[in-house]
Amino acid sequence: xxxxxxxxxxxxxxxxxxxxxxxxxxxxxxxxxxxxxxxxxxxxxxxxxxxxxxxxxxxxxxxxxxxxxxxxxxxxxxxxxxxxxxxxxxxxxxxxxxxxxxxxxxxxxxxxxxxxxxxxxxxxxxxxxxxxxxxxxxxxxxxxxxxxxxxxxxxxxxxxxxxxxxxxxxxxxx
Length: 174
Known about the structure:
The chain is mainly α. It is built from six helices and no strands. The chain has helices at 2-16, 32-57, 62-88, 99-110, 116-141, 145-170. The protein is globular and about 50 Å long.
């Protein structure tokens, strides 16, 4: 009984430290929309980087390899920018993927068949479309110049990646 309670306490502490959303101090000027946008950016970057590891282990077709290489490079480029922006405002970024993205990643990692390429492209299209909607909304509504600039710069990159993902999908990966 004592060991069971101890394990439950450790589990509660471990789970309590996990967050899927960005958190800001109570006295911050950050709006709810700004926090949602930082969360969306983190989720997209983290998801892209996790799926990059899967692409490296698979043998995707040339179209998927090409778009994955670009997406991975973009995620690596934007991660430190996002971390710096969060640190500037004392915002704690999430430390794990949200449930839906985690589920997509696990499905691709452990059940990549019947077609890894199609599954990867579908995952990436969905995550990029969701993030793009949040970025557009935030860029249009935030009063913070730093946040606005980050999203105004990221929107064309996400749009370009989406176009490349759709093009790769149209090439009917085998």
